Amino acid sequence: MLDWIERELIYLAYYFEIQLNQLFFFYVFGTLLGSLISVFAKDKIHHALTSSKWSAWGFLGFFLAALLGFASPICMYGTLPLVAALYQKGIKQDYLACFMVASVLLNPQLIAYSMALGPTVFTLRIVTCLLMALAAGLLIRYCFRDREFFSFGKFGGGHNHDTDPNLLMRYLKNVGRNLKATLPYFLAGMLLAALFAIHIPQDDFARLFGKDNGLGVLYSATLGVPLYLCGGGTVPILISWLAAGMSKGAAVAFMLSGPATKINNLAALKAVLGIKNFILYIAFVLIFSIAAGLITNGLATVFNW
Q1: CB-CB neighbours of 70 under 10 Å
Q2: Of 176, 200, 273, 279, which is most buried, counting CB atoms within 10 Å of its CB?
Q3: What is the pLDDT along the chain (305 residues), one digit of tens a residue?
Q4: Which residues, in sequence order, are CB contacts of 142 under 8 Å at separation 6+?
């Protein structure tokens, strides 16, 4: 028994160190970048949202809304009060839907973390998240033209933690909060990835989630609903899965469905959508994630990614 435990700890330490060496730079870079944007650029992003003449942009406004959503460093509980205020200022709900979905899927920290996935998967993540945000905006524009999709009446304002008058201390406190919020999940993700590398046969995993198994995309999209807890924590897991034979389409499905159905995000969204529109949101996420995964696998076969 003691020999088994000793071997297990040695293997865990070995694979954990591999993950740490591979991801440490991206984690630190993402944390510092996220805090930098939160402290020094958040107000500028909010100003861009409130001052833009969205009607003059037309369809290009969806791209602007999505890019601002990606750049926004605040969580969903901070995003909703902002969106409620923007709605009261008269900004249309289709642009707000695009901004919200983009903000749910990506933020500056997660973008930096995702660079560790390699250029192909990183690009796929950015492109598919952008397309999902654009699709959300267009669906709200054409399916909810004459009725309300959101209900912001009962949603309160958010709390701004970045109030220290000393800018350096404000930045360092923000970094500390980011580390406190993400580091446990990041370490847990590396531990799970190490356990996966030790105990899950790669051949079995490749058969389940490989590119030749269309159901792998469905499994991956569904798996993202209960498993996804934190973006930083899932990056090492995805790296391990991809190395074990997971198709890029299955990875795309997981990267879309996971953050869009993260428990914390769902709880916040339920407060402003109501049960009917909340169900529509879940259906949209799963359908888009599966479709994006299948299309990605098809393109990967054609272009031999």
Answers
A1: 20
A2: 273
A3: 667 777 778 878 877 887 788 778 888 888 888 788 778 877 777 777 777 666 677 888 899 999 999 998 776 666 777 787 778 777 889 999 999 999 999 999 999 999 999 999 999 999 999 999 999 999 999 999 888 898 876 555 555 666 777 888 888 888 888 788 778 877 877 787 777 777 766 666 667 777 666 778 988 888 777 666 666 678 888 888 898 889 999 999 999 998 888 877 787 788 788 899 999 999 999 999 999 999 999 998 888 87
A4: none
Residue found by looking up tokens 């001052």 in the block: 51
Q: What is the rounded CA–CA span in Å between residue 146 and residue 88?
A: 17
| The one-letter amino acid at 267 | A
Locate tokens 């909060």: which residue? 177
Distance CA 55, CA 53 (A): 6
DSSP string, the chain: -HHHHHHHHHHHHHHHHHHHHHHHHHHHHHHHHHHHHHHHTHHHHHHHHHH--HHHHTTHHHHHHHHHHHH----HHHHHHHHHHHHHTT--HHHHHHHHHHHHH--HHHHHHHGGG-HHHHHHHHHHHHHHHHHHHHHHHHHSSSS-S---TT----------SSHHHHHHHHHHHHHHHHHHHHHHHHHHHHHHHHHS-HHHHHHHHSTT-THHHHHHHHHHHHH---HHHHHHHHHHHHHHT--HHHHHHHHHHHHHT-HHHHHHHHHHHHHHHHHHHHHHHHHHHHHHHHHHHHHHHHHT-
Q: Which two tokens stand for residue 39?
A: 């402290």
